[in-house]
Design brief:
By secondary structure, the protein is an alpha/beta fold. The chain is built from twelve helices and 13 strands. A seven-stranded parallel sheet has the order 3-2-1-4-5-6-11, sandwiched between helices. Strands 7-10 form a two-stranded parallel ribbon. The protein has a two-stranded parallel sheet with strand order 8-13.
């Protein structure tokens, strides 16, 4: 459905690359008069070019109600959703504060904005979880088979729950929820892309997860169309087709390192030492079980089909053809972390053995005291 584009658009999360690119692309659309970036953090210098035509307001979601009304906001694009905790900026607690509490406050503000005509919310296919009980393909109507283990997936479920509440209270406002597959492409910088940029990629013995990606440029096109057109509902956004994890590793020219499933978490916990970042249970479960979604509804409603997963992944590979970002310093840091981990594990095992031995001695002595 095509309607007149909104005149004033507010985009949250513009201190991050995707939010900045969304805001910049909308600001370049002559049909939109004004784009305002709402973020409590100052965007880094690297994003200034994208935000050249965007008005910036440094404020958190609690200030959004007044801002929406004063600005005459007709559309809100909520991009301030973090997929992984950042240990340098408050860790998991700060992530939940932004994702869950921030979204709740933002939607309360949107509900109170009388001129609002459109709401677009970034979500994720992580909402479906990842487990051995999953169907071969998820549609938008598929419910998770179990509560996801990962904090990001649980946040996404809360976010979508708040959007459902907004739809009930403001049914006249088209609300679009976009469940994105993991981003890929030459300009994508995520935990997964940094992992595939390393020379060695950890995998799981006996598993070959099916993966699906969406090219960043295609994600931007869908977000743009969600603002200038009316597409109420929830949509899976991914490239058609799948890549098995083993195929992705080979295409990237990397070396797979198969590990027992129980060891994978411990190894990936060291990822931050080689510049990959925080690896959560969401990413671990994805590498173990994989996830594939159906995009029929997206193609039908938007009249746009993202490039397929293999093509999007090839674009990422081309940008990293010269090798990984693994440096000697990061290798040394990883080696130290591994050795420290081994020492701690050995110490813990020795301590548990000593405790069991002491318990056995005490139990034997107690049995002797009770003997007639």
């Amino acid at each position: 459905m095509v309607t007149s584009p909104p005149r004033v658009v507010v985009v949250t999360g513009v201190s991050r690359p995707l939010g900045a690119r969304v805001a910049g692309r909308l600001a370049a659309d002559p049909r939109i008069e004004r784009v305002v970036g709402l973020d409590p953090h100052e965007p880094p210098a690297a994003l200034r070019a994208d935000l050249a035509e965007v008005e910036l307001i440094r404020a958190d979601p609690r200030a959004a109600a007044g801002a929406f009304i004063d600005l005459g906001a007709e559309a809100v694009v909520h991009m301030a959703v973090s997929s992984a905790p950042d240990a340098q900026h408050g860790g998991r607690q700060a992530m939940k504060e932004q994702n869950v509490i921030g979204t709740m406050q933002l939607l309360a503000a949107a509900q109170a904005a009388p001129g609002l005509r459109k709401l677009v919310v970034r979500s994720s296919t992580a909402a479906y979880g990842a487990s051995f009980r999953d169907p071969a393909v998820f549609t938008e109507d598929t419910e998770p088979r179990a509560v996801p283990r990962g904090s990001f997936a649980r946040d996404i479920l809360d976010i979508e729950g708040y959007v459902r509440g907004f739809r009930r209270r403001r049914p006249e406002v088209p609300a679009t929820v976009l469940r994105f597959a993991p981003f890929i492409g030459s300009t994508a910088h995520t935990t997964l892309t940094r992992m595939f940029a390393q020379p060695f990629v950890p995998t799981v013995f006996g598993r070959d997860a099916r993966l699906q990606f969406v090219h960043v440029d295609d994600a931007l096109e869908i977000l743009h169309r969600s603002v200038i057109e009316d597409h109420p509902g929830t949509f899976n956004v991914a490239g058609a087709g799948v890549l098995a994890l083993s195929q992705a590793v080979r295409r990237a020219g990397r070396i797979a390192v198969p590990l027992p499933e129980g060891t994978l978490s411990s190894v990936l916990a060291l990822a931050r030492n080689v510049g990959i970042g925080e690896i959560g249970l969401d990413q671990i479960d994805l590498f173990v079980h994989g996830r594939v979604v159906d995009t029929t509804k997206l193609a039908r409603e938007f009249g746009f089909t993202p490039r397929d997963t293999a093509t999007a992944f090839d674009d990422f590979i081309a940008a990293h053809a010269n090798g990984s970002s693994l440096t000697a310093d990061r290798l040394a840091a990883a080696e130290r972390a591994i050795l420290d981990g081994i020492r701690r594990t050995r110490a813990a095992v020795s301590e548990r053995a000593a405790l069991r031995e002491q318990a056995a001695i005490s139990e034997k002595a107690s049995a002797g005291d009770d003997a007639p």
